[in-house]
């Protein structure tokens, strides 16, 4: 096959030109990074697992009418996606206090929140992706008020879907991050879920034992990241045969 034109390489993925206009090929690498890439490793098979898991979550969302960039999986490490203009915000939804929220506000990890909390972080590695308010977002033109309403609506639907899917396999969805992009349909623009949804971008705790099955295993040196992700894939019935 002819080599594809590389458009962008990030910490965990590469984007190549797609076969049709308006499409891209997203390649999942085995690289793991944390703390804004201060901690790095290569985890054999992580890219294969995340490709499968992101396919599973995104196609599930497509099926219930939550639009995503996912078109189809091409092979073990690549998927065909719609090209979008990424909004430079990370949208985090939290059901239970953990991570940066626990640290910032002094709330013990594992404390259930009275309602899901949605936060926005400005995507900028140099600044360490700072937390921003809706006022910042509108004032600096990253999104308008209608976009914000649409992003919140998408985030809530993704949270309901993912929480249910994970609960069914004995896993609590603590929090997650999504990225959202603008897709053009003629003159009409709509916001769709983009990037990836995988244990790299979620916190997933076993309901019974509290065991962490997400990237915190790598961030906090809690054991084998590949084993944790394999367990999530196994429970969801999407374990690739050769990992
Ligand atoms: O670190 P923090 O507690 O803010 O992370 C909240 C959620 O967002 C976690 O599930 C984490 O994995 C995800 N996240 C991410 N990419 C980032 C920051 C956070 O996927 N750059």
TrEMBL record:
Residues 6-235 form the SAICAR synthetase/ADE2 N-terminal domain. PROSITE patterns: SAICAR_SYNTHETASE_1, SAICAR_SYNTHETASE_2. This is Phosphoribosylaminoimidazole-succinocarboxamide synthase. The keyword Nucleotide-binding applies. CDD domains: SAICAR_synt_PurC. One of its GO terms (cellular component) is cytosol. Pathway: Purine metabolism; IMP biosynthesis via de novo pathway; 5-amino-1-(5-phospho-D-ribosyl)imidazole-4-carboxamide from 5-amino-1-(5-phospho-D-ribosyl)imidazole-4-carboxylate: step 1/2. One of its GO terms (biological process) is 'de novo' IMP biosynthetic process. HAMAP family: SAICAR_synth. It catalyses: 5-amino-1-(5-phospho-D-ribosyl)imidazole-4-carboxylate + L-aspartate + ATP = (2S)-2-[5-amino-1-(5-phospho-beta-D-ribosyl)imidazole-4-carboxamido]succinate + ADP + phosphate + 2 H(+). It is an enzyme of class 6 (ligase). The gene is purC. Keywords: ATP-binding, Ligase, Nucleotide-binding, Purine biosynthesis. It holds the Pfam family SAICAR_synt. Its EC number is 6.3.2.6. It comes from Psychromarinibacter sediminicola. The keyword Phosphoprotein does not apply. Belongs to the SAICAR synthetase family. NCBIfam families: purC. One of its GO terms (molecular function) is phosphoribosylaminoimidazolesuccinocarboxamide synthase activity.
């Amino acid at each position: 096959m002819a080599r594809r034109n590389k458009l962008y390489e990030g910490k965990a993925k590469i984007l190549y030109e797609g076969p049709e206009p308006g499409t891209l090929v997203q390649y999942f690498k085995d690289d793991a990074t944390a703390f804004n890439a201060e901690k790095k490793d290569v985890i054999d098979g992580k890219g294969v697992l995340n490709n499968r898991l992101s396919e599973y979550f995104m196609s599930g969302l497509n099926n219930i009418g939550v639009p995503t960039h996912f078109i189809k999986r091409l092979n073990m490490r690549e998927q065909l996606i719609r090209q979008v203009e990424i909004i430079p915000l990370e949208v985090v939804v939290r059901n239970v206090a953990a991570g940066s929220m626990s640290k910032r506000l002094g709330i013990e990890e594992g404390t259930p929140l009275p309602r899901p909390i949605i936060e926005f972080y400005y995507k900028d590695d140099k600044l360490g992706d700072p937390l921003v308010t809706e006022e910042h977002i509108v004032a600096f033109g990253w999104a308008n008020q209608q976009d914000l309403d649409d992003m919140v609506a998408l985030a809530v639907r993704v949270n309901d879907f993912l929480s249910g899917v994970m609960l069914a396999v004995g896993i609590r969805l603590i929090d997650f991050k999504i990225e959202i992009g603008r897709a053009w349909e003629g003159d009409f623009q709509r916001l769709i879920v983009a990037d990836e949804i995988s244990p790299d971008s979620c916190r997933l705790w076993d309901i019974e034992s509290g065991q962490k099955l997400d990237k915190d295993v790598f961030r906090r040196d809690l054991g084998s990241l590949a084993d944790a992700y394999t367990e999530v894939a196994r429970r969801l019935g999407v374990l690739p045969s050769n990992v």
